[in-house]
Amino acid sequence: MERTNTERFMKNDTLLPLYNKDKPKSNPSNELPTAIPSHARRVYIETYGCQMNVSDSELMAGILTQNGHQTVPHLDDADVVLVNTCAIRENAETKVINRLVQLNHRKRRQPDLIIGVCGCMAQHLRDKLLDAAPYVDLVMGPDAYRDLPVALDSLARGVESHVSLTDRDPFVGLRLDKSEDYADIVPIRKEGIRAWLTIQRGCDKMCTFCIVPFVRGRERSLPLKFLVEDVEKLVDQGFKEVVLLGQTVNSYRDNGADFGDLLYAVGDVNGLERVRFTSPHPADATDSMIDAMASSPSVCKHLHLPLQSGSTEVLERMRRTYTAEAYRNLVSKLRERIPDIAITTDIIVGFCGETDAEFMETYQMMADIRYDSAFMFKYSEREGTLAHKVFPDDVPETVKGERLKQIIELQENISAAINRDTVGDTVAVLIEGESRRDADRYHGKTDGFKTAVFPKANTKIGDVVNVRVDTTTAHTLIGQTI
Ligand code: 5AD
């Protein structure tokens, strides 16, 4: 039977030292309050957005648990709910606002419920969030999570002294701090096959469409030595795959070491089956990164390489710092060095001023490169970005929709054709779990991050098995173990 999250966390509690005393903080001035809280809270964390947010929620769970609080798997059991949010597109924020309305209904029944909004949307909307949702008790950005225990303590005191909801001051933590890397915090992860490991926080790239540098602050890398130790511990805990996370993960730097050095070092950790990373920036795709991908056996031969647009003019307006031609050359080089590499991407259609001809350059580039898969988005204007300040968001919504539809159709056909070509091949699959549709089957990922489904036979979760592909769809390889 599946473990409940509580059991998972409890297991992790006993598995992991909650405070890594051997590991000095990169920034010793950021002390965690160590006193036992006067009010231990039961906290439910709800996560929206990217893997970095999943990783941040694990960090928040670590900070809270270390300070005597408890994370719980169900909202019904909680006296604090923390919503960890995303601000990348407008619809990500709309989703959270709707969720907050629901939580406010709950608060009417449970007046002591503390509602916290954490992460990128908190940092983005700031006071506007409290205007839109005045019942929110806590607003906290990604660099302020060390203050969570202090915040919960002071809010709990308000609850205790029966200060009415409307009179209670919200706790606001929105400082961005370039020195905050949480290197000393041990995240609390769910048990599983794949662990997320944040190797870098923030972003210095300043793409004109993107809110991330404004909500996550300046770029900073965690020390290589600690990261390798972290990976060793993750292997000891039973994880088979580690995904290195950063906004522009391959601009990683620690003293003289670059991202290629980190890949080699992590790839050498004994017992680790696979290393992946996301998301690299094309302008930082150095030979050292490519060498490590080509020659370190545990580094997966899959690169998620966001293109955004196939038009050099649009890329310039986006300040992506590469041309369409440079990107094409990079893909050629990658395929020369690593012939079986899987390449996936992110595309934005309808960016400010995008003409039909510029859009067609994106379409053509996708047709030429033939990505294994792609995440595709309509441009969503974000207040605070340079694009918002200097370019009108002038591509009509219907045109954005039409363009998106065209590239989705193109990509579906390409993904289906690439997968069809694997019929008869044998692929190595790391088993992740039971297939949702069929209890007699497992699902897992290939090295190139394709989902494979196959009968369980005599295999178990965590094994790497050879699967012969029999049939395929645009998203799945279906076969059997051999
Ligand atoms: N509008 C639409 N898509 C965006 N992305 C980032 N900012 C925006 C925006 N304002 C997309 C990019 C990025 C991915 C994570 O989200 O494609 O690579």
Which molecules other than protein and nucleic acid are bound?
A: 5'-deoxyadenosine
Radius of gyration over alpha carbons? 23 Å
Largest sheet: 6 strands, parallel
Task: Give the number of helices.
Answer: 15
CATH superfamily of the largest domain, by name, is: tm_1862 like domain
- Helix % is 25-40%
Distance between the termini: 27 Å
Notes on the protein architecture:
- The strands form 6 sheets. The chain has a 6-stranded parallel beta sheet with strand order 2-1-3-4-5-6, sandwiched between helices.
- The longest helix is centred in the last third of the chain and has 24 residues.
- The protein folds into 3 domains: 157 residues, Rossmann fold (3-Layer(aba) Sandwich), CATH 3.40.50.12160; 227 residues, tm_1862 like domain (pyruvate-formate lyase- activating enzyme); 56 residues, OB fold (Dihydrolipoamide Acetyltransferase, E2P) (Beta Barrel), CATH 2.40.50.140.
- It is built from 15 helices and 21 strands.
- It is an alpha/beta fold and 482 residues long.
- The chain binds 5'-deoxyadenosine.
- The site of 5'-deoxyadenosine has 12 residues, from strand 15.
- 5'-deoxyadenosine (5AD) binds next to strand 15.
Indicate the topology.
Blueprint: H1 5-15, E1 42-47, H2 51-66, E2 70-71, E3 80-85, H3 90-109, E4 114-119, H4 120-125, H5 127-132, E5 138-140, H6 148-160, E6 171-173, E7 194-198, E8 200-201, H7 212-216, E9 220-221, H8 224-236, E10 241-245, E11 253-254, E12 257-258, H9 259-267, E13 274-278, H10 287-295, E14 302-304, H11 312-318, H12 324-337, E15 342-349, H13 356-369, E16 373-378, H14 386-390, H15 397-420, E17 426-434, E18 441-446, E19 451-455, E20 464-472, E21 476-481
Parallel strand pairs: 1-2, 1-3, 3-4, 4-5, 5-6, 7-10, 10-13, 14-15, 15-16, 19-21
Antiparallel strand pairs: 8-9, 11-12, 17-18, 17-20, 18-19, 20-21
The chain binds 5'-deoxyadenosine.
5'-deoxyadenosine binds next to strand 15.
